[in-house]
Design a protein that fits this description.
heterodimer, A: 145 residues, mainly alpha, B: 647 residues, alpha/beta, six-stranded mixed β-sheet, four-stranded antiparallel β-sheet, 16 helices
């Protein structure tokens, strides 16, 4: 059994996205921890519903240590892994695989963020994001009910 | 001007006009009349020689005439005023003779003469010289009311701003011609005091009573002096404030505005900090909210799985395995402290086996169940927090916008003033002067209250003195004389008051008649009252006092009406001469005021001195065919002005 990694990695290309987000300080990115930045990208990636099978992290670089993960973060990681495995609960016994899954989703998230920033007028990304979140909220809670 | 003879011939009207730019000699004309009558020149302009020493003043003599003379030669200044009154003509003639000593040096005064000639219809001439001539002038137009015959537009405009009830009372006193009564009253009072002192000389009790009476008399006099002083200071402060108000008319209080700007800047900066904080807070909330909403389905999915497992009893109860193992090892119940019996041991071992049999998966699911549920619940609280922070941001944006708007307003208001320091100084000066004014008004109030008390004591002392005098048989003769004096003083006082009151009511009536006859707004004003304290009040048709809110033209008309009423009541036959009559009246009302002057000249000789700017096309049009004489003052050089006859 492979040793459990003590750190989380991202694709080295995603650093450019982080730098850009920090430069323009979207979501107060420059004051966030690496772990928070990672969780944000992970959430975007997960909600995109894109398949992670095709995701290949070619060159990776560590972003934070797993000891910094809170109980909530760990719970989210497991939930993402369970969903990614179509409900196969065995995945949660394989922490290595869980980390790989979340890293791939985060990579998707960073790429989505990159494209959004590139294709949105300067300064308007947060506003658009806020509108999208309102729509998502309605979709999840109001329209369904 | 020299060797000029101006004939103010009357036509249908009695209107005569001089037009000349500043410095052309308009005011000299007023001064010449004043000099002829009173031997002074009261209308010196602000930059003229008013404040110079006698030796530095420009001589009265025409400078060109002076330069044509050689040392030792004599030169004369002479002004004659010819005034027709009915079938008689009065001539006032003043001459002053000088001798040229050296070229460029002020000529030496030699002699002066003043005489009045009364030319009767039959051709006889009556001459009045020296004291008699001066008395004639005092009867004709007393010096102390000349300001109602010679004045400028500014004085008309400011008359009721300057004039307190006291001033109007003084004017009324002056034209009532009761100064003789006043003098008799004063003399009688002195006499009464002297007699009382004489009578009490041999009677210590009486002397004491008289001392008390005199003590209160002196106290009253002192209080009256102080009240008079307060009144002077009040008038002075009001004049200073009025002058500053004139200077500051339409100019904002720059210091106040700048202070407000500073406060607004500070407030703006504080709001900006709050705004930045709220924006950052929003970014933080939005990020957390985004994470949860994006993961919500995923988290919900896992929570649903856990719930299903629990419903299917696939998850173990929530038991502390370490505690059970510790109890088993020590053989003692950690809850109740008793030793374990066989049944208990079997039961614990059985439970532990069951749990061990449960998968590590189930254990993990139990571990993540609670955090995941908490995350799901957090979505709504984050939504609320986002709404709150958005509201806070909108409020701050509005507040900052208001601040910016106010700042722009202020900047616009204070921009373009180069003399900011001077303006600040003036505002401060006005504030200080207002404080002085208020303190004097307050002091006057307290002095008046004090005066009432002293007056009571004075009356008591007077009564006591009268009683004491009566009781002393030895001084019967004195008593009679004193009583006579006091009675006479009372009669004089009552007469004075009655005359003053009659004159006041006549002036009020006259002012009202003239004003309502001349005013162009026929439905705006209701009444004019000069109250018992001699305060003039103008009432709007809606019954409120409106003196402070009327236009400059209306104010000038009111002052003119008051002046004409004074003329009428006083009975003094003298023209009215106004320098720059419409300088302070705005364009629209100039024509109205010119029409008023036209009506006035039907009843009285009016001489108007205009500047060319003032004498606009509209004014000219109003006066066409109505003016008897029209002159233009053309300065030929710095020393001399030529008088051009236009009509």
């Amino acid at each position: 059994m492979a040793a459990i990694p003590d750190r989380i990695y991202i694709d080295i290309r995603d650093w450019d996205v982080i730098n850009q987000l920090e430069r323009e300080n979207y979501f107060n990115f420059s004051n966030k921890t690496r772990k928070d930045q990672f969780m944000f990208a992970l959430a975007i990636g997960v909600n995109s519903d894109l398949n992670i099978n095709s995701v290949n992290i070619e060159k990776r670089r560590e972003i934070f240590l797993t000891k910094d993960l809170s109980e909530n973060d760990k719970a989210i990681f497991y939930a993402v892994a369970i969903k990614s495995s179509n409900g196969d609960l065995n995945i949660i016994n394989d922490l290595n695989e869980v980390y790989k899954i979340v890293q791939k989703y985060a990579h998707i998230g960073f790429q989505i963020l990159y494209n959004r920033i590139k294709n949105t007028a300067y300064g308007s990304f947060e506003k658009i994001f806020e509108v999208e979140m309102a729509e998502l909220y309605n979709e999840l809670f109001l329209i369904k009910n | 001007m020299r060797n000029i003879d101006i004939d103010f011939k009357k036509d249908n009207n009695d209107l005569h006009i001089f037009i000349g730019r500043n410095g052309s000699g308009k005011t000299n004309f007023m001064n010449a009349i004043n000099w002829c009558l009173y031997a002074d020149e009261p209308h010196l302009s602000k930059n003229s020689n008013e404040e110079l020493d006698e030796s530095e003043k420009m001589p009265l003599v025409n400078l060109n005439a002076l330069s044509e003379k050689s040392p030792g030669e004599k030169v004369k200044v002479e002004v004659e005023l010819w005034i027709d009154i009915g079938s008689e003509t009065v001539v006032f003639k003043r001459t002053m003779e000088y001798q040229v000593e050296k070229i460029g040096v002020e000529p030496k005064y030699l002699d002066s003469n003043f005489e009045v000639q009364l030319h009767h219809k039959q051709g006889n001439v009556e001459f009045f010289e020296r004291e008699e001539a001066r008395d004639y002038v005092e009867r004709f137009v007393p010096k102390n009311i000349r300001e109602f015959f010679f004045f400028d537009g500014e004085r008309l405009d400011k008359y009721f701003i300057d004039s307190t009830g006291d001033k109007i009372k003084k004017n009324t006193f002056d034209i009532s011609r009761i100064d003789l009564l006043e003098k008799v009253g004063e003399r009688l009072e002195t006499l009464s005091r002297e007699l009382t002192r004489e009578a009490s000389r041999n009677n210590p009790d009486l002397e004491k009573t008289n001392e008390t009476f005199e003590k209160y008399g002196e106290a009253l006099e002192e209080i009256n002096k102080q009240i008079e002083e307060c009144n002077k200071n009040i008038t002075l402060s009001r004049n200073i404030i009025r002058d500053i108000d004139d200077y500051l008319a339409g100019i904002p209080d720059i210091e106040k505005e700048e202070n407000e700007l500073k406060i607004l800047d500070k407030k703006g900066a504080e709001k900006q900090v709050k705004y930045e904080y709220q924006k950052q807070k929003k970014q933080d909330i939005l990020m957390d909210y985004g994470i949860l909403l994006n993961l919500w389905s995923t988290i919900k999915n896992t929570v649903d799985i856990i719930n299903t497992k629990r419903e299917n009893n696939e998850l173990p109860p929530n038991i502390n395995l370490e505690l059970l193992e510790d109890i088993l090892e020590k053989g003692v119940c950690k809850v109740c402290g008793r030793a374990l019996d066989t049944i208990s041991i079997n039961k614990i071992e059985d439970t532990l086996n069951k749990i061990t049999l449960s998968s590590s998966i189930a254990q993990k699911l139990i571990e993540i169940e609670s955090p995941l549920k908490m995350l799901l619940e957090k979505v709504n609280s984050l939504k609320k927090a986002l709404e709150e922070v958005n509201k806070e941001i909108v409020d701050l944006e509005e507040e900052m916008e208001d601040i910016e708007e106010r700042k722009n307003e202020i900047n616009k208001k204070i921009s373009g003033y180069d003399d900011r320091e001077e303006i600040k100084k003036k505002y401060k000066e006005r504030l200080d002067q207002k404080e002085v004014l208020e303190s004097n008004i307050e002091r006057r109030g307290s002095l008046i209250a004090q005066k009432k008390n002293v007056e009571k004591e004075y009356d008591k002392a007077k009564e006591a003195l009268a009683k004491a005098l009566k009781m002393d048989q030895q001084i019967k003769n004195f008593t009679k004389q004193i009583e006579f004096c006091n009675k006479a003083i009372n009669v004089i006082e009552r007469s004075k008051n009655k005359i003053m009151n009659d004159v006041r009511l006549k002036i009020e009536k006259g002012t009202k008649e003239i004003f309502f006859n001349l005013i162009w707004k026929k439905d705006t004003f209701k009444d004019i009252v000069i109250d018992d304290n001699y305060n003039l009040k103008l009432y709007h048709v809606l019954d409120y006092e409106c003196l402070d809110t009327i236009s400059a033209a209306e104010r000038e008309l009111l002052a003119l009406s008051f002046t004409l009423a004074l003329h009428k009541v006083s009975g003094f036959e003298f023209p009215i001469i106004i320098d720059t009559p419409v300088a302070r009246v705005s364009d629209t009302n100039r024509e109205n005021f010119a029409k008023v002057l036209l009506k006035v000249c039907e009843m009285k000789q009016v001489i108007l001195l205009f500047t060319p700017d003032e004498f606009s096309k509209n004014i000219e049009k109003t006066f066409t065919n109505e003016v008897c004489n029209k002159y233009k003052l053309n300065p030929s050089n710095e020393r001399e002005t030529k008088l051009e006859v236009i009509i």
